[in-house]
Design goal:
Blueprint: E1 2-6, H1 10-21, E2 25-29, H2 33-40, H3 51-60, E3 64-67, H4 70-76, E4 79-82, H5 97-109, E5 114-118, H6 126-140, E6 147-151, H7 161-166, E7 171-174, H8 178-188, E8 198-201, H9 203-234, H10 238-246, H11 267-280, H12 286-298, H13 301-309, E9 318-322, H14 337-347, E10 351-355, H15 360-367, E11 373-375, E12 388-391, H16 403-409, E13 414-417, H17 424-429, E14 433-435
Parallel strand pairs: 1-2, 1-4, 2-3, 4-5, 5-6, 7-8, 9-10, 9-12, 10-11, 12-13, 13-14
Bound molecules: uridine-5'-diphosphate-xylopyranose (UDX).
Family: Belongs to the UDP-glucose/GDP-mannose dehydrogenase family.
Pfam family, one: UDPG_MGDP_dh
Enzyme class: oxidoreductase
C-alpha cells in the first residue's frame, strides 16, 4: 500500500520506517530542508535504537523516500498520515497550527479520495476540525472530493519505539466509516501477532484513549511518589511496599517505580492538555491537577535533600550528576528531572559535573557553554572534586558501578539516588551516606 507521512520527527519517522519494513511504499514529507537532506543521506536526526538501520535498509530497498514537496505527498499515498508536533501553548493546551496547516495543504493538492490519518496527539474534537479545514479549503478551490479523517494515536515509548510499533499491544483506530476501518485494518494486519490487535471505535473515543492511557500511567507514578514521600516520614521502605502491592494482579508491577518524577515529551504535556480540555468543557479534573502538582514537587526532591544535607549552603559546592536524559535509551531532555536539579543547583551557586551516555550533545544545545557545567566523558570523571553524587536517570551503566572508586574520588561518600538503584543497607555497609526516594527515615 502507499502511505505518505507529514512530519519526519520521532513519531513520523518511526511510523514511516516500520510501515515500509512490512512492504508498504512510504513517502515522508517535511518542511525542514536540513532534516530532509540529512535523511536522504541516511542520517537520522534523533536517537532511537534500531531506527537508523531500518531507515537505511528501507531506503535501499526503494520502499522509503523523503520529500519537501507536499504535492508529491498528496499524490503518493492513499493514506495521508499527519505526524507533526503539537507543542503546548502557554496555557497548556495543544497548539494545533501545524496539524491544521498539513490538513490545508492536503486539501489544496488532493485530486482523488484520500484517508487522512491523525497520529499526532491532539485534543478530543481535532479530527472534526481537520475534517472542517479540509472541506473548507477544498470548497475554496471549487472542489468537492471524498475523503475520510481517522484518529490513530501512537503509543510509542522512546527508546523502544520500533519494538512498540512492530509488536503493538493495540492499534487504536477511530473512524465513523466502516469501509475506512477495513482499510486501516488491512494496513495494520502485518503487526497482528496471535490475535487481532486493531480496536476500532468512534473518532472522539480514539482521541480520548490516547490521553486516558498517558494520564493513567502518569497517575500511577505520582501515586507512588506521594507514597514514597509518606514512607520517608513514616520510616517505611517504598521498595518493599512496591513489591507488596505489585503482587496484586489488579495493581501489577508495571509503572509503579517511585523516583524523582516523570519527564519526556508526553506525560507532562498530555496531562496538562487533558486538564485544560476538561476545563474548557466546564469540568475541573482534580485528580489530573494533583498528578501534575505531585510530579512538579517530586522533580525538586533531590535538590531538597541535597540542600537539607548541606544546611542550605550549596554555594561553591560541586555536584557530580549521573544521567541527563528523562529516561534511559534516549537523548531526550524535554521536561527531564535533571533540568530541575541542575537549574536549582546553579541557582544555589553550585557547579555540576555531569555524564550521560547519549544526551550530552542535547545538554550542550540547551545550556550552551558555561563555567558551572562540565560534561564529562565517563561516570567516573564526574566525581573528581565533587562533594556529592546525584543520580537522576537509571542507565544500565550506573547500576553496578565501582563503589570503591566512587568513595575514593568524592570529597565525602555521599550519594543522592533519584531512581533507587542500590540497596540502602549495602550502601551503608560500604560506608556511604546514601539518600534515595522513599526508603525509610534516611531517605
Ligand atoms: C510515554 C508512554 O509510555 C507511551 O505509551 C506514550 O506514547 C508516550 O509517553 P515515553 O514518554 O517515551 O512514553 O516514556 P516512558 O517510558 O513511559 O516514561 C515516562 C517517564 O516516567 C520517565 O521520566 C520515567 O522515568 C518515568 N517513570 C516511568 C517513573 O518515574 N516510574 C515508572 O514506574 C515508570
Amino acid at each position: 500500500m502507499k502511505v505518505s507521512i507529514y512530519g519526519s520527527g520521532y513519531v513520523g519517522l518511526v511510523t514511516g520506517a516500520c510501515l515500509a519494513q512490512v512492504g508498504n511504499h512510504v513517502l515522508c514529507v517535511d518542511i525542514d530542508h536540513g532534516k530532509i537532506e540529512a535523511l536522504q543521506q541516511g542520517r537520522i536526526p534523533i536517537y532511537e535504537p534500531g531506527l537508523e538501520d531500518m531507515v537505511r535498509d528501507n531506503v535501499a530497498a526503494g520502499r522509503l523516500s523523503f520529500s519537501l514537496d507536499p504535492a508529491e505527498g498528496v499524490r503518493h499515498g492513499l493514506f495521508q498520515f499527519i505526524a507533526v508536533g503539537t507543542p503546548p501553548d502557554e496555557d497548556g493546551s495543544a497548539d494545533l497550527s501545524h496539524v491544521l496547516a498539513v490538513a490545508r495543504s492536503i486539501a489544496e493538492h488532493m485530486s482523488e479520495y484520500r484517508i487522512v490519518v491523525n497520529k499526532s496527539t491532539v485534543p478530543v474534537g481535532t479530527a472534526d476540525r481537520v475534517r472542517e479545514t479540509i472541506a473548507r479549503t477544498m470548497a475554496d478551490r471549487g472542489a468537492a472530493l471524498e475523503f475520510d479523517v481517522v484518529s490513530n494515536p501512537e503509543f510509542l515509548k522512546e527508546g523502544a519505539a520500533i519494538e512498540d510499533f512492530m509488536k503493538p499491544d493495540r492499534v487504536i483506530v477511530g473512524t465513523d466509516n466502516p469501509r475506512t476501518a477495513e482499510l486501516m485494518r488491512a494496513l495494520y494486519a502485518p503487526f497482528n501477532r496471535s490475535h487481532d490487535r486493531v480496536i476500532c471505535m468512534d473518532v472522539r473515543s480514539a482521541e480520548l484513549t490516547k490521553y486516558a492511557a498517558n494520564a493513567m500511567l502518569a497517575t500511577k507514578i505520582s501515586f507512588m511518589n506521594e507514597l514514597a514521600n509518606l514512607a520517608e516520614q513514616l520510616g517505611a521502605d517504598i521498595e518493599e511496599v512496591r513489591q507488596g502491592i505489585g503482587s496484586d494482579p489488579r495493581i501489577g508491577y508495571h509503572f509503579i517505580y517511585p523516583g524523582c518524577g516523570y519527564g519526556g515529551s508526553c506525560f507532562p504535556k498530555d496531562v496538562k492538555a487533558l486538564e485544560r480540555t476538561a476545563r474548557q468543557v466546564g469540568y475541573q479534573a482534580q485528580l489530573l491537577e494533583a498528578v501534575e502538582a505531585v510530579n512538579e514537587r517530586q522533580k525538586h526532591r533531590l535538590f531538597e535533600k541535597l540542600s537539607a544535607r548541606f544546611d542550605g549552603k550549596l554555594s561553591g559546592r560541586t555536584v557530580a550528576l549521573w544521567g541527563l536524559a528523562f529516561k534511559p535509551n534516549t537523548d531526550d531532555m524535554r521536561e527531564a528531572s535533571s533540568r530541575a536539579l541542575i537549574e536549582a543547583l546553579w541557582e544555589a551557586g553550585a557547579r555540576v559535573r555531569a555524564f550521560d551516555p547519549v544526551a550530552e550533545d542535547e545538554c550542550r544545545r540547551i545550556y550552551g557553554e558555561r563555567d558551572d557545567l562540565v560534561l564529562c566523558d565517563s561516570p567516573e570523571d564526574t566525581l573528581t572534586g565533587a562533594d556529592a553524587l546525584a543520580i537522576v536517570t537509571e542507565w544500565t551503566v550506573f547500576r553496578s558501578p565501582d563503589f570503591e572508586r566512587i568513595r575514593k574520588e568524592l570529597r565525602q561518600p555521599l550519594i543522592f539516588d533519584g531512581r533507587n538503584l542500590y540497596d540502602p543497607r549495602h550502601m551503608e555497609e560500604m560506608g556511604f551516606e546514601y539518600y534515595a526516594i522513599g526508603r525509610g527515615r534516611r531517605a
